[in-house]
Amino acid sequence: MREVDLPTFASARADGAMVIDVREPMEYLSGHVPGAQLIPTGQLASRLAEIPRQAPVYVICASGNRSSSMTSFLVHAGYNAWSVAGGTSAWISADMPVIVGRHANVA
Q1: How crowded is residue 102: how many other Cβ atoms within 10 Å of its Cβ?
Q2: What is the distance between the alpha carbons of residues 105 and 33, in angstroms, rounded to a whole number?
Q3: Does domain 3-93 have CATH number 3.10.20.30?
Q4: In whole angstroms, what is the distance from residue 90 CA to residue 14 CA?
Q5: Helices and strands in the chain: count of H runs, count of E runs
Q6: So which residues are the catalytic ones?
Q7: Which secondary-structure segment (H or E) carries 18?
Q8: CB neighbours (10 Å) of residue 21?
Q9: In a 3-state reduction of DSSP, which class is residue 51?
């Protein structure tokens, strides 16, 4: 499994890496990683054009289950994708910044 720990993810995010949140819209609105782009699991296959193929892409969900399966899907499709260990729950537990509401592109 292609997975990164929170410190590695936090560093990549701070450097401007793309973050895809594969949760459902209501989950995303209740709290998400700053800068994360919402692409729910059910829409990922139809929205591949929005994802850079060469640069690393970090996939996050609530706990790591959905992001793990969506990362596998992306890797098999030729993307440099990584699942974030522990998901948004671990991010919040580590007292990392969270955005509530629709704002995706906030640093």
Answers
A1: 10
A2: 10
A3: no
A4: 17
A5: 4, 5
A6: 61
A7: strand 18-21
A8: 27
A9: coil
Q: Are 61 and 87 in contact (CB under 8 A)?
A: yes
d(CA 51, CA 72): 15
The residues near 62 (Cβ < 8 Å, ≥ 6 apart) are: 23, 27, 87, 88, 89
Distance CA 33, CA 89 (A): 10
Q: Which two tokens stand for residue 89?
A: 């729950």
- Determine the Cα–Cα distance for residues 58 and 83; give it in Å rounded to an integer: 6
Distance CA 34, CA 30 (A): 12
**Do strands 18-21 and 81-84 pair parallel, antiparallel, or not at all (unpaired)?**
unpaired
The tens-digit pLDDT sequence of the chain (107 residues) is 799 999 999 999 999 999 999 999 999 999 999 999 999 999 999 999 999 998 999 999 999 999 999 999 999 999 999 999 999 999 999 999 999 987 654 43
- Retrieve residue 50's tokens: 């929005």
Q: Which helix (H) or strand (E) holds 80?
A: none
